[in-house]
Each structure stands twice: as C-alpha cells, then as structure tokens.
C-alpha cells in the first residue's frame, strides 16, 4: 500500500496563508482595516489577481444640496448636477527580508528552516506594516514628514489649513509650519477639550459639497472618529480624563483609569495609543516637546496588496551548511488625498494635530 505524502510545496503554501493572516492581526491598526469604503484604513486586494504596479481608489464627493432641488417648475433636462469624483493612485512596491540558519542550529530541510524563522519574520513583517502606516499618516503630499522640505510642508499646510490644529488653539496656525509649531507652548498637552476641537474641525472641514470628513459608521447610525496618538499624548489625556472616569465609570478592570488599556473614549472619539508614533523633538515654544496626533475618519488611508506575504528560501547554501528563509510581498500604503499630486491636494479623511508632550516626571 502506498500512502499519500503532502509535498513540501503544498505545505509551504498553506503556511504562507497563515503567516499573512497572523502578522496583520498582530498589528494594532488591524481593527481599523477592511475592504469597505466605511473603513478607516481601506484595503484593496484587486492586484493580487491582476497585473499592474499601482491601484487607484475612486473618490466620490457629495452632490450639492445648497443650490436646492428641482420643484418641477423648470426642466430637469439640462440642469443635472455633476457628480464630483477623483481618484487616489497607490504605488505598489516590494517589501522583503530574510534570516539565515546554519545546519548546526536547524535540520537541513527547507520546511524546517521556514518554521525556525517563522516567529521572527512574522514580527518583522508586522513592524514594517505598522511603521509604513504611521509614516503614511504623517506624510506630506506622499512624502514622509522627515524627508519633506520646509517648502513642501508649508504647501501641504496651506492646502489643509481647515484640517490641522497646532496645540490647543486654532489661532496658533501660521502659513509657515515651523512658526505654527513654535506657537505650541509646553502646557498645550492633549486634553479632552482638544479632542472635541479636533472632532469639530473634522465635521467642519471643507469637502466637495459635503458635510465634513466622513466618520466611521457602526450599528444603525452611530458615528465615530479614531484618534491615533503616541505614548506621551495618551498619558496626558488619560490624566486629564481621570476625574471623568472616576465619576462616571465603574471601578475595576473595565475602567481605563485603573488598567493599562490602549484605548480611551471621549465625545464620540476613540483615542488609540500607538507607542511607535514618535515626537518631533523640541520644536515648540521655548523648546517644548511636540508630538503629532491623527484624527481619522473613513478612508483615511489606503493599503493595496499586489502579492500577499509569501515565504522565500535562499539558493546559495554553502554546500548545504546554511539555509536562509525570508518573506516577500508587494504592497503600497498611502494617506488618501483629493486632487493627489496638485499643490492644493487635501487629506481625504485625516485631521492632523500637533501637541506638547509633558515630561515624564
């Protein structure tokens, strides 16, 4: 009797699919990712079944309601309303890395080598995805904040003046980003009033014949925004909300005041701690430390995959002594913009904030 033996290729393929699912799940942004236009981070997998190096996410603005409707007294023919539309193109690129195990540490089998590096590669891929999402949130017209020139930052700042907040006061805004950051004083740390102000900015932001930045909708008609913040601003807000949590919530494991939870909630806004969102340094008034924060609505970011994560093995093995295992994927992550590539491009679903971060004392 001959028993069926599953080939190594089939085992590797099964492992690849599980690897992709696990590393995305481990990312703190995962709960905000989905394929719907309602999701904060919209995922597009179209290119996994097609050829191409980019994918365009269609953007459709709201029809103008201010001009009124046709009451039947005039012809509708010739008076139709144009549907505002645009598209954001996400460029796809290669993401890959690898590790090597020698024969003294692992059996000389491709499948065993893949399993040996599995946890390390899963964590590394997760970190790359997380870091790219953070970089996209802080990008200036597609350019990472750290790489953008002062002129490029100022151009982005001017176009997005209706969806940016420097410190606690809208009056801190200045056409020159460095000046606006310098207007942030050390006491302008993140607090509940600032969270509410960010929400109002999102609701009042100039959109194409619309009603502000579109929030994430859950349940029947509940709306919310998500505010991603670093450790310093999160700590400051938690302290500011301490009395509210003490007065309005039960004392126990479900109260953020007594736990190390990574989420807070205020005025219809979920505040999510992302420790890897780093500060900008002492660019505030009198050297105050400043950190960026990002209030996001629907379709704030776009993630496009042309090839989901697959494992790879090293061909050069030094006569069977060394065995390398790696991963590779084709994807792109960008902040969605209306009029992408133009000088007046607007961030589609993000309100950017900059706040002082209190010292650790």
From TrEMBL:
InterPro entries: ORF017-like (IPR025267). Pfam families: Phage_capsid_3. This is DUF4043 family protein. It comes from Coralloluteibacterium thermophilum.
């Amino acid at each position: 009797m001959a028993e069926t033996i599953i080939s190594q290729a089939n085992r590797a393929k099964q492992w690849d699919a599980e690897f992709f699912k696990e590393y995305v799940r481990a990312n703190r942004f995962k709960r905000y990712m989905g394929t719907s236009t309602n999701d904060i981070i919209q995922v597009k997998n179209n290119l996994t079944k097609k050829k191409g190096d980019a994918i365009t996410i269609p953007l459709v603005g709201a029809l103008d309601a201010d001009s009124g409707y046709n009451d039947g007294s005039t012809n509708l023919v010739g008076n139709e309303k144009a549907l505002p539309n645009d598209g954001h193109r996400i460029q796809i690129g290669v993401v890959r890395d690898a590790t090597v195990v020698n024969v003294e540490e692992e059996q000389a089998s491709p499948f065993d080598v893949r399993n040996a590096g599995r946890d390390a590669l899963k964590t590394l891929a997760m970190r790359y995805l997380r870091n790219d999402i953070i970089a996209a949130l802080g990008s200036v017209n597609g350019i990472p904040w750290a790489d953008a020139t002062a002129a490029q930052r100022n151009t982005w700042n001017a176009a997005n003046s209706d969806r940016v907040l420097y410190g606690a006061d809208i009056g801190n805004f200045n056409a020159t980003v460095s000046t606006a950051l310098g207007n942030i004083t050390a006491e302008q740390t993140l607090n509940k009033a600032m969270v509410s102000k960010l929400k109002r900015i999102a609701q009042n932001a100039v959109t194409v014949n619309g009603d502000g930045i579109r929030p994430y909708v859950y349940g029947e008609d509940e709306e919310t925004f998500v505010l991603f913040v670093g450790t310093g601003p999160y700590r400051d807000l938690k302290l500011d909300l301490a009395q509210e949590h003490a007065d309005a919530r039960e004392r126990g494991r479900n109260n953020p005041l007594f736990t190390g939870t990574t989420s807070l909630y205020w005025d219809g806004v979920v505040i999510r701690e992302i420790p890897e969102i780093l500060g900008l340094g002492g660019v505030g008034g009198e050297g105050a430390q400043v950190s960026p924060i990002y209030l996001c609505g629907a379709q704030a970011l776009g993630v496009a995959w042309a090839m989901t994560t697959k494992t790879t093995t090293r061909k050069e093995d030094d006569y069977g002594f060394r065995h390398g295992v790696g991963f590779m994927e084709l994807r792109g992550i960008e902040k969605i913009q209306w009029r992408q590539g133009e000088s007046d491009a607007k961030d589609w679903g993000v309100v950017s904030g900059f706040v002082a971060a209190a010292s650790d004392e």
